[in-house]
Amino acid sequence: MGMVFGKIRVETPNYEVVQSSPDYEIRKYPPSVIAEVTYDPSQFKGDKDGGFSVLANYIGAFGNPQNTKPEKIAMTAPVITKSSSESGSEKIAMTAPVVTKGSGEGEKKIVTMQFLLPAKYVKVEEAPKPVDERVVIREEGERKYGMVKFSGVATEEVVEEKVDKLKKSLERDGFRVVGEFLLARYNPPWTLPPFRTNEIMIPVE
Questions:
Q1: Phi/psi of residue 195, each to 5°?
Q2: 3-state class of 205 per DSSP?
Q3: So what's the pLDDT on residue 3?
Q4: Which of 37, 104, 112, 165 shows its CA 20 to 30 Å from the CA of 58?
Q5: Residue 54 β-bridge partners
């Protein structure tokens, strides 16, 4: 029942709060190891989160882990989704321990979804090797984000509004935006909307 009411029971990434204001928080995240899959959502009937099952199979979330050890890997949160279109509009979606980013040309959109692996995996070599060739394991260096937190359902309209407001606040205060935004979702789909934790994260210098 706890997860229905927003209880987060999985590992979440460590970070340092560099600065906070009424409008946002600046966080610095340490290096991490991620598992990612890149795909065309049309392969999953237009589902932007369709790569989730591929990554979940790698860690063994739904059964035997699809890696060469084989070793079950604990789920983490949040799930981060990033996507962009040729027009420059950015749309994102998320669930629990995943990062997704995407790019597209015209109507075609390519999405990259990422799971942040538990902090015990410090180097790529320490993580179990995927059986599925679509899954790539790589290291991500230290990064800094401006972020805002919100509850409810992260619809595209809500996300776009939050992103626009956050970007303007960061630029107003002298921060330089250095990449596309992320939408971080900390809860599974069955969590009641008022109890969901979502974050908009924009990389800054």
A1: -105, 5
A2: coil
A3: 61
A4: 104
A5: none
For the chain, the C-alpha Rg in angstroms (whole number) is 17
Residue 164 dihedral angles phi and psi, to the nearest 5°: -60, -45
Q: Which two tokens stand for residue 72?
A: 């079950």
What is the H or E stretch that residue 184 is in?
Answer: strand 182-185
The residue that leads in pLDDT, 89 or 45, is: 45
Which residues, including other chains, have CB under 8 Å from residue 45's CB and lie 6 or more apart?
none
CB 205 within 8 A of CB 142: no
- Judge contact between 169 and 195, C-beta under 8 A: no
- Spell out the domain ranges in the chain: 16-203
Share of residues in the chain with pLDDT > 70 (%): 85
Q: Alpha-carbon distance 39 to 85, whole Å? A: 15
Per the prediction, the chain carries an average pLDDT of 85
SS3 label, residue 146: strand
Structure tokens at 57: 């199979």
Written as six digits, the tokens of 66 are: 């699809």
Q: Name the one residue in this structure whose structure tokens are 């899959």.
A: 37
Fold exhibited by the domain 16-203: Multidrug-efflux Transporter 1 Regulator Bmrr; Chain A (3.20.80)
Rounded Cα distance between 198 and 151, Å, is: 6
